[in-house]
Design brief:
heterodimer; A: 474 residues; alpha/beta; 11-stranded mixed β-sheet; 18 helices; B: 297 residues; mainly alpha; MetI-like fold; two-stranded antiparallel sheet; 70% helix; globular
């Protein structure tokens, strides 16, 4: 190849590269002409929950010819959505969890829905009271629910029977929970050179003190499954925030929750519990400690029968409200919700909201909740929904979510950081490397520091942000 | 400048322009931007808010950051020398004229090809307190193995053991250097009555010292940025009592979980300075012991 031809080829290559780069930016803004408006919906759920939503989306697409929803299941959606918004190409609808709503609002990642809700004639009074709070932030509504959940105590009735306990009775106080858990705990102890398997309650005082046994089965383990560990204080009358902005980590109620948490390793032995827990399989596997009968009682959501059916179909189980420290406080639960929202910069907000409105139809919500084994966020439930739901304890889950004991995770801008800190505190206290007072003092200090940093930002952008939200025209 | 020279310059620049463009877009701009953002509160979606030195001041009192830095330095202090020693030892052994030498070389090198994610998943099971192969092996010697990944005292040793699994890369480089050592040096030493340890100390190590130095610096840079294995095995919170929370993991959490990109950028610049400082110290400490052929000592 001659020198000149070589130079010419290089020029062509440079221009081709430039054209390619420019072309990449242009493709995303193309819209098929004449056909339905294409909207993109990112959904966090994969697996069967994702499939259930896909069926709903397919029905919506078939029900009309103006909008076509393209459902994409996205893992780690909360991180990717931020990058997509920053890049100027967010989806039109995003499906996340409520505990992300406040964090996303704080970063101006969402459009407020108040105007669209008013135009569509939707009313938040149609939902259980706790959902009103879950869907809004700083006076604006940012999301609509697709399914909800509350949590309760699941128990293995077979293990109750084997321990001589009434399988139909669930503990009504934390003290009773601990006592029942003790009776359900089975250990292997060396006696006279032989290993014997026996209930924990049959150990001698000296054997209990020595903690030189191997745990085979536990009645209850506060660190399992670990999803709501940071909210244990809820059942002790505590709260991690004052309902507004103030962090209330270091309180007597929260210290009591941590004292209770560490009473387990103190009683059963830290190393014994670690060795026992190291044999647990992941949640969605037959080796999950509850499905496999290693743990007799566990805090779980309304969806649990889904997995019991799959991984332990013969399990004889029941559910009841998780007991509070004082029976007078019962029933207490934590409510969460799957939600859909419109990310900032979405190209078709009106069409996106039309799809979201479709998801709010009672028959659609109930169908989705039946498929995902969740709880409907609506006040009214049809007999068909109540009768055909796979969780026979659904009325109890709805009742506790409806009642005054329904609690939600703190809605502070630094909730993710808060969660990491409070979990670290439980971890340290559970590892017997810090006292509850020390651990909570550190949480309080660190989260207040994070809160101060968030406040600096809000002070700088807050007024403009509120104005932008109130003036936003879809 | 003559016309021909100008033409050559223009064509030269044209040839390297894709690289220059890429370098400017993907290196110079991001690095410069992180420096600016390190003085701001920046959550990616909104405009950065200028904070001055606040991020750097906050780092001084961030106890978790100090714990993460301590974990990283401790891990580096143990893992790096062990890895270097092991890769050198293996290279020396595999440089001996033994039967099936290529096969052994392949076997020792293969683990370093396993991707970090697969490696972490594999070792999660190896270190399992109840069913892990490691504890089962220890039990055959009557030793009760620890709860490797559940006990704060054992998480870092577990990661160090795991890091030794990947010494094959350093071993291969050292092995290549060993084969470059002139045979006549050994022959002369043998005529003078040198024993194996003398040859190792006075010929082999000086002759491969530039490669050992290279392994040291690259290992140092890598070990200070350890991320994938601890993140997969322990998550962003750093395992029990944050005993496996490393600097890069905490940086990632700040950047992509908390969206505190300004603080994460400040952390990144401090990490850069720490690595630069350690590299300079290592260079200064080893300068007298590095022998470059063709260069007067």
């Amino acid at each position: 190849m001659s020198y000149c031809r070589c130079i010419a080829s290089a020029r062509v290559a440079v221009w081709a590269l430039a054209a390619l780069l420019l072309g990449c930016g242009a493709t995303a803004s193309r819209q098929a002409e004449g056909g339905p408006v294409q909207i993109e919906y990112w959904e966090k759920w994969t697996g069967h929950e994702g499939e259930a939503m896909r069926e709903i989306v397919d029905d919506f697409n078939a029900s009309q010819n103006e909008i076509h929803v393209n459902l994409i299941t996205v893992s780690q959606i909360e991180r990717k959505i931020m990058l997509a918004i920053m890049g100027g190409h967010p989806p039109d609808v995003a499906g996340l969890w409520t505990h992300w709503l406040h964090i996303l609002c704080e970063r101006n990642a969402l459009h407020p829905l108040d105007r669209l809700i008013a135009e569509a004639g939707l009313s938040l009074d149609d939902y259980l009271p706790v959902f009103k709070v879950l869907l809004s932030d700083r006076g604006f509504i940012f999301a609509l629910p697709t399914s909800g959940t509350s949590v309760a105590l699941y128990r293995n009735r077979q293990l109750f029977r084997e321990a001589g306990l009434d399988p139909d009775h669930s503990p009504t106080s934390i003290a009773e929970l601990d006592a029942i858990a003790e009776r359900l705990t089975v250990v292997e102890q060396r006696r006279d050179g032989k290993i014997v398997r026996l209930p924990y309650t049959e150990l001698t005082a000296a054997e209990k003190e020595a903690r030189n046994f191997r745990i085979v089965q536990m009645g209850f383990a506060p660190a399992e499954p670990g999803w709501w560990t940071m909210l244990w204080s809820t059942w002790f009358g505590g709260a991690l925030w004052d309902g507004e902005e103030k962090i209330t980590a270091d309180t007597p109620e929260n210290r009591a929750a941590l004292e209770w948490f560490r009473s387990y390793p103190l009683k059963y032995g830290l190393d014994n519990m670690r060795a026992f827990a190291s044999g647990f399989g992941v949640f969605m596997s037959p080796q999950n400690p509850f499905y496999s009968g290693k743990i007799a009682m566990v805090l779980q959501g309304v969806w649990m029968p889904n997995f019991i059916e799959k991984y332990a179909p013969d399990l004889d189980w029941a559910a009841a409200p998780f007991p509070a420290v004082d029976p007078a406080m019962n029933p207490i639960t934590i409510v969460e919700s799957d939600i859909v929202m419109i990310p900032r910069g979405a190209r078709h907000p009106r069409e996106a909201f039309r799809f979201m409105t479709y998801l709010q139809r009672p028959e659609v919500i109930e169908r989705l909740c039946l498929a995902q084994r969740k709880m409907s966020p609506l006040r009214q439930a049809s007999p068909h929904y109540l009768e055909t739901h796979k969780n026979p304890f659904l009325p109890m889950f709805i009742e506790i979510a409806r009642g005054p004991g329904a609690r939600i995770a703190p809605r502070v801008p630094v909730w993710y950081e808060y969660m990491a800190e409070i979990n670290a505190a439980y971890d340290k206290v559970g590892s017997l490397t810090a006292t509850p007072a020390e651990a909570l003092a550190q949480v309080q200090r660190r989260v207040e520091w994070k809160q101060r940093r968030a406040q600096v930002r809000w002070d700088a952008v807050g007024p403009a942000r509120l104005r932008e939200w109130s003036e936003w025209q879809p | 400048m003559r016309t021909a020279a100008k033409l050559r310059l223009r064509n030269g620049l044209l040839f390297i322009s894709p690289w220059l463009l890429g370098f400017a877009l993907f290196v110079v701009y991001p690095v410069g931007a992180t420096f600016y953002y390190s003085f701001c509160d920046y959550d990616v979606l909104s405009h950065p808010v200028w904070l001055g030195l606040q991020n750097y001041r906050d780092m001084l009192t961030d106890t978790v950051l100090w714990q993460a830095l301590g974990n990283t330095l401790l891990y580096a202090a143990v893992s790096l020398p062990l890895g270097l020693a092991l890769s050198l030892g293996l290279a020396l052994l595999l440089n001996q004229p033994i039967v099936l030498r290529p096969l052994f070389r392949t076997i020792f090198f293969l683990p370093s090809l396993v991707p970090a994610v697969a490696l972490a998943m594999l070792w999660l099971w190896m270190f399992n307190g109840q069913f892990g192969l490691l504890n089962i092996a220890l039990e055959t010697f009557g030793i009760k193995g620890p709860i490797w990944l559940g006990d704060p005292a054992w998480t870092k040793p577990a990661l160090v053991i795991m890091s030794l699994w990947g010494v094959g890369g350093g071993m291969i480089i050292t092995l290549a250097a060993l084969q470059e050592v002139p045979r006549e040096l050994y022959e002369s030493a043998e005529i003078d009555g040198a024993r194996a340890r003398h040859k190792l100390w006075h010929i082999t190590l000086p002759m491969i010292s530039p490669v050992l130095y290279f392994n040291l610096i690259m290992g140092l840079i890598g070990v200070m940025q350890i991320f994938a294995q601890p993140y997969i095995m322990f998550g962003g919170n750093g395992g029990p009592s944050r005993s496996a929370l490393f600097y890069a993991v905490y940086l990632y959490e700040n950047a992509f979980t908390y969206n505190d990109m300004g603080y994460a950028c400040a952390m990144a610049w401090i990490l850069f300075l720490i690595i630069l400082g350690l590299t300079l110290i290592a260079t200064r400490a080893t300068r007298r012991h590095i022998y470059y052929a063709g260069k007067a000592k």
